[in-house]
Structure formats: C-alpha cells, structure tokens
C-alpha cells in the first residue's frame, strides 16, 4: 500500500484531500446540501434604476412628448417667418433708396447739361424780347429746344409780382415803386432755372420798396 492512498471498505482507494484547494471541498459540500439559487420571482422583484423608470414613463406616455416636439417646430417656423419679413422689409427699403438715388442722379445730370446751355437760353430769351424770333426756322429751333428741356424737368423761375424768396431769387437792387407790393419782385434782370427741387441758377431780380 502506497503513502498517497488509504484503503477503506472493500479495498477502494480514497484520494487524499488537497489542503491548497479548500474551496473545492466547500463547493462540493454546498452542492451536496442542495442550497437553492435565484428564482424568477427574485429577479422580477429587483428595483429598477431611475433611467429605466424614466424610459418606461416616456414610452408609456407618448402623448406628453408629442406637444413638446410640436411647440419646438412652431417656434422654429415663427423664427424663420420673422427672418423672411425682415429680409422683405430690407429689400423694400433698398429698392426705395435706389429709386431715390436714381432720380437724384438724373436731376444732377440734367442740371449739368442745362447749366452748359444757359447762355444759349439767355440769348434765345433776349432775341425773343427784341422781336428777332417771331417767325422763321430759328424761331422753330428755339421753341423745340425749350420744349425738350421742359420735358426734362426744366422750369423757369423769376416773375414780376412774386414774393421775394432768397432760395430762388438773387436781389440785385431795390426799386422804389407803387406798382408792386413791397418785398416782391418788381423787375427780372435775368431768369433763373430749376429742375425738380434743385435750383440750377437763381433769378436776378429787383425788389420793390416803398417809394
């Protein structure tokens, strides 16, 4: 008989217990005693975590989540609509500003052209007052030129009897007279011109005073 085996009973060998593995012996004892494990009731009875409970609550109440999504979509739509309205207002302002600048530019260009023609207009007026343009081809040319400039916005300023206005009249002298009210134009020495609201040249006038 060897040292590693002991005989017991009918000569069967019994292995010696390994002192370095006591857990093996304990597990064998637990299994031999039939200790019960986890049951289905134990698993179902375990408390759920907060994240799982929140997910269950959200999934169980889909009607509560739907209004929040609709409110966010409506807010976004309102913001986009406000952006479009602001862009439309900016475009209208830009269009109006461009139109005004275009009209101002046209007036300035016309004014510069008419300023260059002022000596010609003065000669036409002097010739008409002298009776040299009563008839003939030159009279027709002068009339067509004046009509063309009038269509471009040209307006002659400075008439006898008008109230003196320093923005359109240039006072050259005072004329004592009882034919015209005081501080009114009594004589036009040189006609003035304007295009729209822009005065191209002020009219040189005499202002009536008390005799």
From TrEMBL:
Broad class of the protein's primary localization: cytoplasm
InterPro entries: GrpE, GrpE_CC, GrpE_head
Alphabetical keyword list: Chaperone, Cytoplasm, Stress response
Regions that span the bilayer: none
PROSITE patterns in UniProt: GRPE
Domain of life: Bacteria
Region (Disordered): 1-77
Low complexity biased stretches: 26-35, 54-71
Record keyword Transport present: no
Location of this chain's protein in the cell: Cytoplasm
Keyword Chaperone: yes
Function, as annotated: Participates actively in the response to hyperosmotic and heat shock by preventing the aggregation of stress-denatured proteins, in association with DnaK and GrpE. It is the nucleotide exchange factor for DnaK and may function as a thermosensor. Unfolded proteins bind initially to DnaJ; upon interaction with the DnaJ-bound protein, DnaK hydrolyzes its bound ATP, resulting in the formation of a stable complex. GrpE releases ADP from DnaK; ATP binding to DnaK triggers the release of the substrate protein, thus completing the reaction cycle.
Subunit structure: Homodimer.
The family this protein is said to belong to: Belongs to the GrpE family.
Protein name according to UniProt: Protein GrpE
Gene (name only): grpE
């Amino acid at each position: 008989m060897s040292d590693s085996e002991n005989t017991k009973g009918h000569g069967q060998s019994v292995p010696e217990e390994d002192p370095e593995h006591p857990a093996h012996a304990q597990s064998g004892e637990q299994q031999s005693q039939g200790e019960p494990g986890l049951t289905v009731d134990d698993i179902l009875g375990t408390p759920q975590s907060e994240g799982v409970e929140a997910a269950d609550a959200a999934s169980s109440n889909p009607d509560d989540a739907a209004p929040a999504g609709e409110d966010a979509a409506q807010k976004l739509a309102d913001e986009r609509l406000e952006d479009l309205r602001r862009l439309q207002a900016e475009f209208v302002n830009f269009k109006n500003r461009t139109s005004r600048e275009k009209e101002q530019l046209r007036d300035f260009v016309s004014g510069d052209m008419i300023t260059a023609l002022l000596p010609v207009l003065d000669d036409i007026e002097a010739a008409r007052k002298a009776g040299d343009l009563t008839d003939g081809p030159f009279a027709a040319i002068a009339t067509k030129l004046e009509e063309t400039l009038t269509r471009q916005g040209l307006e002659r300023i400075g008439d006898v009897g008008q109230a003196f206005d320093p923005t359109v009249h240039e006072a050259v002298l005072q004329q004592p007279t009882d034919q015209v009210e005081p501080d009114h134009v009594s004589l036009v020495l040189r006609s003035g011109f304007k295009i729209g609201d822009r005065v191209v040249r002020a009219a040189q006038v005499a202002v009536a005073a008390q005799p």
